[in-house]
Amino acid sequence: MLIFLENAAKVLGDAHVAALADRTTNGLLAAGRKDEHGRTWADPKMREGAAALYVGDAGVGAAFLARSRLRGDAAALKVATEVGDALLARAQRSGDPPKDSLCWDKQVEVIYGTAGTALFLLELAAAVPDGARFRDGALAAGRHLIASSTREDKEPARRYWRWALAGNATYTGFSHGTAGVAYALLRIGLECKDDACVQAAKDGAEWLLALAVRDGDLVHWPVAPKSSTSMGGWCHGPPGTARLFLLLHAATREQRYLDMALASANWVMAQAGPADAKIPPAFPPSFCCGVAGAIDFFCDLQRATGDAQYGVFAGRAADYLLAKAEADGDGIRWANGVNDQKAAAHQHNLDLMLGASGEAFALLRVLTLGQAPDPVVGLPDRRIAPAAGGTTGATR
To answer: In the predicted model, what is the mean pLDDT of residues 251-266?
Structure first.
């Protein structure tokens, strides 16, 4: 919610929203506590995901980092730095040479695990002058991610990851699957100049390429290797998975990666029906599983390719969100709809991934699509181009 409020205050120039963001910041600070390692918001009983990007301390740190970038707020950057230092202090270290690998628990994926936490550390490293320790921590997390993978002995090499909290299930997508872990490894490899991480990311992409379902110029993925279900949201569908392929293309200039990203975007557009028709009322509005996350992706896709059709689709999807909105006093809200989290369809969440903050964040993306550079600051897992100086030809 704070990430949305800070962006809305910046984009809209709205003093009331800025004041609400200030109060939200104060509320977050009041809810935190200190332990022997420093600042934390995690429940002391939380054994898995306490350090994570979407359910743990890395996510709170990312919110303060977004505030610091949008406001130039030194106090917010100090809090984000404290979060990063506490995460490094809490990490479980192992490896040879000593302590060159780190993690926080058994989870490796973006939502609950090491992949998401490492992405926060990378973003923090770029934001502070003395960020080398955070970059080193992300690289150590990358080594743990590589060690946690399963590598298929095939040509070309393929690699995938399992989600421990789901009984070691194997998923393809960005939220809990190989696409998200491979994306994190690619970011780590590019920004830390580590070929092993880059190669592991490419191996993950090969595993996904082998599972891709092709139908002419349309491509999609099953939720899991033997599943007959495919989804169109960020969590398990192309709006998440294609981010890996867009970043791979930007880093390597290999056309096949871009072709895969665009073909999967075509599949998402096909699910919405003809361009002159209303989007059928079967899609949840949310950022995680539904329309808002697709809007976010298509806005990035237009910025990456310069192809206006993707912005047109994002606008069409935004019209759908507005049509689905429900009046609530002098504001609007969205019912959850049917989503993969099995949340009650008629509840009205407030949060970024399943609630009104996410739908409104997507509308901000459309509103600012014509602005360069992009003024919106999202979560650390949204980059689709290498950071300055990132290449695949680097070694440790």
So the answer is: 98
d(CA 138, CA 45): 25
What is the rounded average pLDDT of the residues 11-32? 97
Predicted confidence at residue 322, as pLDDT, reads 94
Q: How many angstroms separate the Cα of 173 from the Cα of each of 153, 205, 237, 321, 342?
A: 22, 11, 6, 24, 18
Using CA atoms, how far apart are residues 175 and 293, in angstroms rounded to an integer?
A: 12
pLDDT in tens, 229-247: 999 999 999 999 999 999 9
Q: How confident is the model at residue 74 (pLDDT cuts 50, 70, 90)?
A: very high
Interior/surface letters 293-320, b for 16+ CB within 10 angstroms, e for the rest = bbbbbbbbbbbbbeeeebbebbbbbbeb
* Ramachandran quadrant class, 284 (left: phi over 0; alpha: psi -120 to 50; beta: rest): beta
Q: In one letter, which amino acid is 24?
A: T
